[in-house]
Amino acid sequence: MLQTRVIPPAEGAYQYPLLIKRLLMSGARYEKTREIIYRDQLRYSYPTLIERVARLANVLTAAGVKAGDTVAVMDWDSHRYLECMFAIPMIGAVIHTINVRLSPEQILYTMNHAEDRFVLVNSEFVGLYKAIAGHLTTVEKTLLLTDLPEKTAELPNLIGEYEQLLAAASTQYDFEDFDENSVATTFYTTGTTGNPKGVYFTHRQLVLHTMGVSTIMGSIDSVRLLGTNDVYMPITPMFHVHAWGLPYVATMLGLKQVYPGRYDPEYLVELWRKEKVTFSHCVPTILQMVLNAKAAQNTDFGGWKIVIGGSALNRALYEAAKAKGIQLTAAYGMSETGPLVSCAHLNDELMAGTEDERITYRIKAGVPGPLVEAAIVDTDGNFLPADGETQGELVLRAPWLTEGYFNEAQKGAELWAGGWLHTGDVATLDSMGVIDIRDRIKDVIKTGGEWISSLDLEDLISRHPAVREVAVVGIADPQWGERPFALLVVREGHEIGAKELKEHLKPFVEQGHLSKWAIPSQIAIVTEIPKTSVGKLDKKRIRVDITEWQANNSTFLSTL
């Protein structure tokens, strides 16, 4: 350790802790009249947001919530969720954003594992909650959230309904300072193996992540995405990594914010049009649903900037969105990283290139943001060259990455082996610092001694005009170890089979973009591809389904 010079602060100097309350108080300085909007039901200004956060803090404190307690929320994207994201950690408690799309058994596991003491329950989830309530081990009280005229429900130990309780509470609350390293939020990964793992973030980490995101998205000219005049609407659930942390950014900057409740593609288009939304973020499958909505068919979405993450952004989706006036930008992160790590960036060299080259780099994972370090390593942890060709596991360092998994020390140690956070993603780094995600380690297809990227293959297949959606996985093969298998959702009025797909992919083989062994020998035409609870391709489920289809000699499998 270096023996550096440290000067003690002057007597009485204020030691400024990085707390979430600082983000809330910043927004009202810029545009006090900007609105927080919930569907067509409620809209209010930033001063009202601050008052409502204070009211909620008073309600929770009166109910017995203390610093260090965990308070769970089961809701769709709403103004209430935004208020909870501030009020709960600002009183020193921890907000547990429950993934309501998990199975009841998994929700029960996460609530007991997180040691939830209080739960805010949307009326849509009362039945679900009551089904598991008898097995909850730490919950003491519940609070009802509802849009319905009926302001009560059969919830155990119910203290009241959200709006009624807020209306009776004081608009003043003295939010004290405390240690910035206090845990502020927790949620559970949607991993497809074993029980979900508890990820947690401190106040300090969330404030730094907020500053990092606002810098990445507001200061990089080639992809400038977010400024104080933008209108923000999340299309990533608030239970999933705090809606990628963007509600904190939007609040700090005083943006107009539009919360759509439960996602419905037709209603999302309506809200976009009515509220003049300019900035959103989502996974590719959700965007595809929006583009396929009836309301979108004759709509020009000019001026709408959307960040795509969670899954790879392929060229076909980029061009389909561009044709509708949407500017897509790829970004990269994961639950454990807060999540934003990198965002597409076009430097002077790329800006001077062709449009095709610019698109190629707009759909990559991008350049690490300020304060982020990225490297690639081999299976022994040795660093590999950043030459754009050598593949290895992407590892990261940044001040906002989770420092472990809640109550799972061994898994946390594995995550941070060698002092770097291991992503589980196969990637390359090039001389410009660009991260190119090639695949998840568990999804790389190993055939005949070669590694084939399922993401690259999905991108190329998606360019066929008949393909609306595609997923590629490796399936066991006695001769080659694994062979690619493609699931396709076909556009209305089109047809495609394995032979047509082979003809489509042959030019990419001839141009050197693809190995000939990467051409799938089997495909399945399906009406829907299995997704996880946050809209990603569920490749574990897909592999199981394919095994069952093959065992049953399903007739809709097409082979070469």
Quick overview:
This protein has 560 residues and is α/β, with parallel strands linked by helices. The protein has 3 domains: 20-202, Rossmann fold; 263-370, 3-Layer(aba) Sandwich (Rossmann fold), CATH 3.40.50; 444-559, 2-Layer Sandwich (GMP Synthetase, Chain A, domain 3), CATH 3.30.300.30.
What descriptors fit this protein?
560 residues, alpha/beta, Rossmann fold, GMP Synthetase, Chain A, domain 3, 3 domains, 7-stranded mixed sheet, 5-stranded mixed sheet, 18 helices, globular
Notes on the protein architecture:
This protein has 560 residues and is an alpha/beta fold. It has three domains: 20-202, Rossmann fold; 263-370, Rossmann fold (3-Layer(aba) Sandwich), CATH 3.40.50.980; 444-559, GMP Synthetase, Chain A, domain 3 (2-Layer Sandwich). It contains 18 helices and 26 strands. A seven-stranded mixed beta sheet has the order 7-6-5-3-4-8-9. A hairpin with a 3-residue loop joins strand 1 and strand 2 (42-45). Helix 1 packs across helix 9 (246-253), helix 2 (46-62) crosses helix 3 and helix 10 packs across helix 11 (284-292). The N and C termini lie far apart (63 Å). The relative contact order is 0.08.
